[in-house]
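Figure 2 data, in text form.
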Amino acid sequence: MKVRVGRSPDADDAFMYYALVKDKVNMKNVELTHIVEDIESLNQRSRTAELEVTAISANAYGYVSDKYYVLSVGSSQGLGYGPILVARNDVSLDEIPNKTIAIPGKLTTANLVLKMALGDVNVVEMSFDKIIGAVAKGDVEVGLVIHEGQITHKQYNLTNILDLGKWWDKETGGQPLPLGLDVSRKDLGVEFARDFKDVLRSSIRYAFDHKEDALDYAMQYARDVPRDIVERFVYMYVNDLTLNMGELGERAIQTLFDRASKQGLLPPITLEFI
């Protein structure tokens, strides 16, 4: 059986999938092909259920819940941290309605939480790895940064206007912020989803047991970011909830969808976890 697995070109996903890519662990009778693309591209591809297994933004799942199961492994959940609004100069939140914000994609969870926090704002879509540079050069006034940009924006003398992870933490009384999910196509069945969940969990455990080797592989996706920052970023988003989101992670995802639905930002859905 041939299965395409979508993941983003980021150090945390690379760390998680290291053992699967390098055949340190494998899935019996399944040939995996790894599709490495920007998360918004994967979000868009999920709309037609093109890939059998894929990483997507939690926001995107609101539009594909009829096509995919949510796996209890592989999620990226911020523990008091998350996407950040940055600018070259001090900008108050009151000024945001008059600014244009570069976002990493309309289906990203970062964009969803931005709307939940600030309402309707002016946005322009941009590849996530171009946003910091665009803000630093003055091409856009404000940027919504994700991935390692949450750490590296300080090197560009950018000001942190709003940390959406901290905002969510305060709003929900300390719940994790669900940002990314791994999902399995429903037409492949529950048994396949469980089998893939188990092998991905084995891959993550292998990475934790062989951290230096897994980090060496992850550095291929570092985008010139120093190893110490890459390591810090990886451990921010590959944590206990990544191995098994459990009741805590499931409740956080349910909270995200319930609140977004009440604000008219997502349709009501039924979450199905495997």
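Caption note: The mean pLDDT is 94.
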